[in-house]
Design brief:
The protein is an all-alpha fold. Helices cover about 65% and strands about 0% of the residues. Helix 11 packs antiparallel against helix 12 and helix 11 packs across helix 13. The N and C termini lie far apart (about 105 Å).
Length: about 350
Amino acid sequence: MGESLQENSAVGQEAYIELSQRRSQKDLDNEDLRRLGKKPVLKAVMGELASMAPTAGGQLVDCGADGAIHMSEEISNPTINVPRAMFYGILLNGILGLAMLIACLFCLGDVNKVFDSTTGYPFMAIFLQAVGSVNGALTMAAIITIMDICASITFAASASRMSWSFARDRGLPGWRWLGSVQEQSSLPLWSIGTTAVAAVLLSLIALGSSVAFNDVVSLTVSGLYTSYLIGNTLLLYRRINGDIKPYAKTDNGLRNTMESEIFMWGPWKIPEPLGTLANAFSCIFLIVMLIFSYWPTTVNPGPAGMNYSSLMTGAVAIFSLGYYFVQGRRTYAGPLIETE
């Protein structure tokens, strides 16, 4: 009888220890998940799976699909090639981005080592744990660095091109210089130099305060989403009212300008009613994302963790409206159209 009780007691103790270990491991896993949800860097990695996360990184992955439009004046047959580039760019990058996200999450390794990486860049710690070699991790990090440099060149070309185009339309302060083109090189050197200097000066903010730098960067998300929402809302309004006429190959007139009496679709168009449904969904999606872009990343944030996107967006809007009413309305009358 005594031996049976001892045996049952031992079995009970083993079961209790095993259950305690399971609970402890479960608590650790839950704690890791809680820490994972509180880290903006990892939220940026998981932004595509939870795109409404209030982080610039998580929402910035959804921006930039309109990149081909910025260079549309330099693209042959833009009415077909620009929307085609946008569509296939989203498709290709979405598939590759999801594959890289899944691979990154499976190779995440020890979450604590990722959070506490001495490099300051968690993706380097992920690489190191995945390949188990410093040289291998450095090689992978170098590839990303090279890709960033290449992307920065295209960003500079796009930003200077848009600045020159808007200055050509007399919509920017200093449009006489920013809208000029040097005869020897046929390049808008003033626009290129101004955007390059502005980018360098903005990057120096990070040396003094990372909070201030992130506040400036957050303007990218709210500014892009606001511009997308304005364009999509106006397009949806025209769709519903039937103000856009079908595309006609035989019509060689100048359409879709401020002086046009009618608007006309281009040769690339989503058939109805899918086009209107996609347009309406995009407006709803942008409204939700724009609201979340102003939220902080944590509950009850301090000054360092507060999201100042609303302040930055409001300041830019006030400056833009002030310039327009003081000077811009006298010079800007809409996009200028060059005819041969």
